[in-house]
Amino acid sequence: MAITAITIENFKGIKDPVRVELKPITLLFGPNSAGKSTVVQALHYAREILANGNVDADLVAGADESMNLGGFRNLVHGHQVSRSIRLTFDLQVSDDLLEPFPVLETADDFHDWFYKSNEIMEPHDTHYDIRKKFNIETATLSLEVAWSNFFEKPYLKKYEIGFDGYPFACIEAKPDSKEISITNLNYFHPAFVIHSEEDPEPKSIPYFAVILIQSIKEPYFQFPKGTYLLLEDQSTALPSWNKKLKVAETCFIEPEDRNEDLFADDFELELNGLLSQLFVRPGEALLKELDKVKYIGPIRKTPPRNYNPVRSDDASRWTNGLAAWDRLHLGTDDFISEVGGWMGSPESLDSGFSLTYRKTKKIDVDSPLYASLVRASSLDEEEDLGAQLENLPETREIVLVDESRNVQVYPQDIGIGISQLLPVAVGALDTEIKTLVIEQPELHLHPGLQCRLGDLFIHQIHEQPGKLFILETHSEHLLLRLMRRVRETSEEDLPVGHPGLSPEALSVNFLDWNQAEGTQVRNLQIGEDGDSLGEWPEGFFEERAGELF
């Protein structure tokens, strides 16, 4: 499962729907206050909704207090509560997302009856497989948050699912939350049509129509107008994870009115189980992906002297960069060496500083062991002084190595640029991070180092397939390095050992804002020659042109 795009509507400065494609390296450019941070905040808001049902979020789990969303009134465009916030995610579906489902035993008989009675096509004699696998490649999941005048607070109005570019259905809540129902069920969705594989002219049967016509009574099901399935044990439009949806008993045909020749006893379980898969599993998968997002904010802290790492997993500490120092203190020697190599090697970032560590043991000066060391003799013949030293608790100190002077220094004793760079490097190299969002990765770095950051990101999307970088940046140098690598890849002129970059792995987005339309996004397509396939938008790097010509 992977998130491939997010579409945002009525969220902060964004009014009309804005779609941002997410590729292994995704860049968000634009003037200050144009809406770049809005895209990042939308990811956090969506996670709050899916994880906690929190549609009125202020503080979020994946960031510290520096990201305070301010609640629905602050988030909805223009602070107009008459509008609805809508967030839509495009997902690449993995093979194991949905299980195969059994074809009804009455499928052959039903096919004849269904098509004949509804005059869709002539009935025919054919055979259907006992089980069918969902043939789904992509999914969309939309969350719509609206204001309830009844409760004077926001609520999740719709949770909507689609597959392979076609809408499937949504769970919809009334403003008073007294009725939660499945609406707009597309029971002719092409992904859920059973095909005969033996017939030279394949014929099909709409699987959901089989179930609904035989099990759901009017007015909840009116063929071919649509469906309206009430849900039980549901207080919001958000499904409960790891729990099945349950269509209300009042929706089902009474046993005495059922067609015994066509109706199976397990249709109710079949429908509940199938709808649960299609609604619940995409949401669980999206939440799992959003849980993997780590966010590094625009100002990274330098750890204090005598720093003690935090051992608990707290994603919010990535915001100020301190989680990177936790990772180094608690990580393996190999990981520290890898980060140090990237920081200091002339073939990598070449920042002028590499990384190493010191291991120390502390002794209580009032302890017998300390007294024994001072006397340079053991306490008695039976005690092993070496063993006592070995058993003392060990701590690790991370130190930086000034490569030009071959001197070890502490993080507090170097320029601000290196302290801003290190969390970016650690997050990029950390294999446990699936999606890394960074605001201004270039902060306080000289132009050459900004360029080399691009090579770090390129290497890591090859070393960690599936890794995604979302970079909110003003760095022309970073973009130019990425475009150069695209060109060199096409021309087969890459530096030795460089993996290269294809245009398909790069998403360059320019965000701008105006009074009439709010925030707009323009995706800049990069060609094989490393240049944009269209004109740069107005305001994009115009300062360089103005200064040079």
> Widest sheet: strand order?
2-1-4-7-8-9-10-14-13
Number of strands: 22
The end-to-end distance, rounded to whole angstroms, is 48 Å
Can you tell me the residue ranges where pLDDT is under 50 for at least 5 consecutive residues? 117-131
Mean of residue pLDDT values? 85
How much helicity do the residues have?
Answer: 25-40%
The total tally of domains equals 2
Largest sheet: 9 strands, antiparallel
- Count of helical segments? 13
Give the radius of gyration: 29 Å
Walkthrough of the structure:
The chain is an alpha+beta fold and 549 residues long. The chain contains 13 helices and 22 strands. The protein has helices at 36-52, 72-75, 107-117, 207-215, 267-291, 322-330, 333-344, 368-375, 385-390, 416-429, 447-463, 476-491, 542-548, and strands at residues 2-9, 18-21, 25-29, 85-92, 101-102, 131-132, 138-148, 153-163, 166-173, 180-183, 193-195, 204-206, 221-222, 226-230, 293-296, 353-361, 394-402, 407-409, 435-439, 468-472, 506-514, 518-524. A nine-stranded antiparallel beta sheet has the order 2-1-4-7-8-9-10-14-13, covered by helices on one side. It has a six-stranded mixed beta sheet with strand order 15-19-20-3-21-22, with helices on both faces. A three-stranded antiparallel beta sheet has the order 16-17-18. Helix 11 links the parallel strand 19 and strand 20. The longest helix has 25 residues, at 267-291. It is globular and about 95 Å long.
